Amino acid sequence: MATTALPFVHLPVRAWADDASQKSLFLLLDATAQDLRINDIRPVVSAFVAAGISVSVVLPALSDAGPSAARSDAIYRFAAERALAEPGLVDIVVGLPEITATRRYEVLRALTEARRGMVGIWGMPAPPVIATWQPATYPKVDPYAMRSAGFRVRFTLPETGGASGLVPQSSIAAPDWGQLELAGGAAVTLGADAGKILGDMDAAVGDQVLMISLRPGDTVPQAARWIDHLQQAVWDGRIFTTRSSDYILQVRPGASKLIGLLMDARGHAAQTASMAAFMQDLDRSNFAFGRLADGSAAIKGDCIPIADDGPDAPSDCVLLSDDTALAGDSLGRIVLQPSHLATGWSGPDENGRFVVPLARFHPAQFLRSLDADPMTDAVVLVSADDVATPLQRQSLLAQFQLARQDGLAQFHGVTDYVDAHLAPDEILARYWSDRRRKTQGMSAPTVMGTGDRAAYLDDAAWAWRYLDETAHRATGVCAGTRQGGASVTLNRDVTFWDVASQIQGTIAAQELGLVAREDAQGRIGLVLGNLPTTAIEGLSLPTALFDSGTLAIVNAGFDSCDVGRFLLSLKCAVDAGLLTPDQAKTVVGRWDLPATIKDGRAFGYASGQWRDVTLSHCTAYARQGYAAWGMPMTDPMPAVDEKSTADHYLRLLYMADDVGHYGTEPYLLEAIEGRLSAQSRYLADILFDAQLSWFEDTGRFKCISEAPLNFAPWFSFQGLRLGREGESAWVVSSRSRDPRHSSPAFLRRAAVISAKSAYLWSAVYPHAYSDTLVGVIRENGRSDGGGFCVGLFESDLSAMRDYSDLNTNGIILQAIAHKFRDRS
Fold it and tell me: How far apart are the first and last CA of the chain?
């Protein structure tokens, strides 16, 4: 049976038990008390170390400022000095702040900042730190993010209980290979009865945690009593003291470190030849590695020196130098720091880049370096000088092979090394895709010529036919959908969202000269005079769904989003001079709308109950309608602005993903009707980039929004789910509970290229892709009876033949008017 070589560490006692009666004892010296000073700690810690007893010094969580921060810094520096001077005896257990984030990347960011703060106090060299602690009341931290940040051990410290405080059973678990979680144990002071505590531990089952909380006034004689009892217990074979790092290495499997290999392929002919020979050796031995290449010779996946970096020659991976700073428009998501410039911390920074300090590399001592620091992941840069001769190449390759064979290291290329720490994160990938497209430059905005204007005006006239022909003669309200063909079927069920689309479409038609001003005023006035009201728990409110001909209530609920769009359409009608402010206020005054907003949060009513609907992709848009009439509402999405970092944008994307999938509406409606917030614009940017990237990768169109269907279940919500990848990111859902309406066959059939969305993209994002979408809709999407159909089916680009709707045609009119207005 093969054996696993273990790194040599200085152990004063055994690291594992000879029989089941012996216990591992994790001895923690707690230096977290706020009134503790360095002179209280130094003699006590030194006494234990001088006696050859291994200890872990528990450090406070980093303070932001003030006197406690100064004391904490001094304690941190003392612990680092002892850990560097006695690497086989002293471990550090660092306190972490409370981390409430749940997304792995956000947790890793918080952990990286904690490590960054530690190294900021210590400077370089910094001791390796793999152990952390948090109070039991803090949320449990994602263990995989902990591992990615280089923390392999999490202590949940017991509360100090004075003389005893023993928890009957310490808990020691391994969430994954090479990781430990420890909780419980005894929490005592230095003045406690050492003999009694250790005797109590004999009665407990399993390995134990003993935390001695240091206090001002503690003395060396008190420490000596503990030392005497501990040494006696060791010699009696009852316990053996160990540190968490020793325990992982010698008891738990999977303590190997990740090594990123980077081959420096630059240089003159002789150097590149020797490096090429070594890379062939690595290939033959199945080692993954990356290349550092000159910008002109770099291929995808390579790293390049920063001097060669720029938007015209982008690379995922950039190596810093002494005299060149990283440009703001650099697309390097991986930033390598030379060993002499290394900051000592590794992980994602606030700009979304993964910073990796290159390890100091001595090829003849590679295995020894693993012994000295067996658990800190590293990237090593192998130069041509390191492999200049066949003997050097053979020696280094043999060391790599032995490290892999003995489970000491797992080898990766640099990109895979970073991805192993980040784990697949589609949202982070979307952030970088959008950033890359913006940095390298979108294609120039398309400009309308005379022929284009004429074509768009013809489109507008065609869309207007739907509004004109389906408006009910008595109420003025259009039909929700129309099925044409041999006979025409009108579905007159409409929402207040649909009514808003009719009003907005009428405003646009008047602006484009398709209808006279007085006619438009009359049409809008007739609609506003025929809007039904429902009573909900004593409140008069716009109803969720009604018949546009009879005005009968079909669904007596209340939809806050739909009403917000309607309120915004009233404001736009006033701004266009088609409605007076008093007329609009009279309409709004019919209803008890302020009662649907509580503490700035929006509420809707469905299925007999009120529900907070604030956390929605609609709220940022709908709130502008409510605000226009004196009803402020909270925007739940995190704000961003021109000073925002990647942290802010990613927080927004994670929140958007938590809410669910989204499409063109309402974010592009916000752009043409109200004031487009920076966060809404960014979410629209991400959606446009995702659709365009999909087209570039597959040759298939994506242009998504909510859409009626001409088959059951008759309506669908279609959009992008940010956290998913590939085909699964493009969601088609409905309110139907029929399993047939969630089958793969149905989802493929129901996926629609939205006609209204094509015109919205053309209006707000003038781009060749937007023009192509409009061209496809213009050619295939006109209904014979007037108006545009809902859209084209993605599967074969066939039209939803003669099936058109109010929302689509009203929005197409809006989009064309905005396109003309914005560029006239």
Answer: 81
Q: Are 803 and 823 in contact (CB under 8 A)?
A: no
3-state secondary structure 269-321: HHHHHHHHHHHHHHHHCCCCCEEECCCCCCCCCCEEEHHHCCCCCCCCEEECC
**Does the structure show a pLDDT above 60 at 432?**
yes
Condensed to tens digits (0 to 9), the pLDDT of residues 360-372 reads 889 999 999 998 8
Would you state the pLDDT for residue 164?
46
Neighbours of 743 (CB within 10 A): 11
Q: Edge-to-edge strand order for the sheet containing 715-720?
A: 707-708, 715-720, 730-733
| Structure-model confidence comparison of residues 319 and 10, the more confident one | 319
pTM of the model: 0.91
Question: Count of CB atoms within 10 A of residue 712's CB?
Answer: 12
pLDDT at 161 over 80: no
User: Chain centroid to CA 621: how far?
Assistant: 23
The Cα-based distances of 372 to 90, 128, 180 in angstroms read 14, 10, 21
Between CA 364 and CA 394 the distance in angstroms is: 11
DSSP state of 478: P
- Reported in sequence order, the residue ranges of 749-802 that DSSP labels E, i.e. its strands, are 752-754, 791-793
What is the maximal distance between C-alpha atoms in the chain? 102
SS3 string of 554-593?
A: EECCECHHHHHHHHHHHHHHHHCCCCCHHHHHHHHCCCCH
Q: From 256, 260, 254, select the one nearest 412 (Cα to Cα).
A: 260
Neighbour-count burial of 803, counting CB atoms closer than 10 A to its CB (0-12 exposed, 13-18 middle, 19+ buried): buried
CA distance 440 to 135: 47
Task: In whole angstroms, give the CA distance from residue 505 to residue 482.
Answer: 17
For 430, the token pair is: 């979307």
Quick one: DSSP state of residue 64?
Answer: S
Query: What are 446-499's pLDDT values in tens digits?
Result: 666 667 899 999 999 999 999 999 999 999 999 999 998 778 899 999 999 999
Contact between 730 and 704 (Cβ < 8 Å): yes
In one-letter notation, the amino acid at residue 558 is F
Asked whether the beta carbons of 501 and 559 are under 8 A apart, the reply is: no
Whether pLDDT at 12 is above 80? no
Distance CA 515, CA 507 (A): 9
Average pLDDT over residues 9-22: 45
**For helices 104-122 and 414-422, angle between their N-to-C axes, nearest 10 degrees:** 110
* pLDDT the model gives residue 6: 29
> Mean pLDDT across the stretch 230-239?
89
What torsion do the CA atoms of 702, 705, 707, 712 make, to the nearest 10 degrees? 70
Q: Which two tokens stand for residue 721?
A: 């789910």
Task: Encode pLDDT of 71-92 as tens digits.
Answer: 678 899 999 999 999 988 999 9
What's CA 701's distance to the chain center, in Å? 26
The CA distance from 210 to 199, in Å, is: 12
User: Cβ(172)–Cβ(207) under 8 Å?
Assistant: yes
CA distance 691 to 761: 11
Coil, strand or helix at 185: coil
Q: Note the pLDDT tens digit of each residue in 778-821.
A: 999 999 888 999 999 999 999 998 899 999 999 999 999 999 98
| Structure token pair of residue 348 | 């994602």
Block residue for tokens 């002109």? 296
> Quick count: other Cβ atoms within 10 Å of Cβ 3?
6
Neighbouring residues of 446: CB distance < 8 A, sequence distance ≥ 6: 766, 767, 768, 770, 771
CA-nearest of 703, 814, 677, 673 to 767 is 703
- Choose among 760, 590, 755: nearest CA to 673: 760
**Cα–Cα–Cα angle for 62, 63, 68, rounded to 5 degrees:** 120
Residue 391 gets which letter from DSSP?
Answer: H
The whole-number pLDDT of residue 163 equals: 43
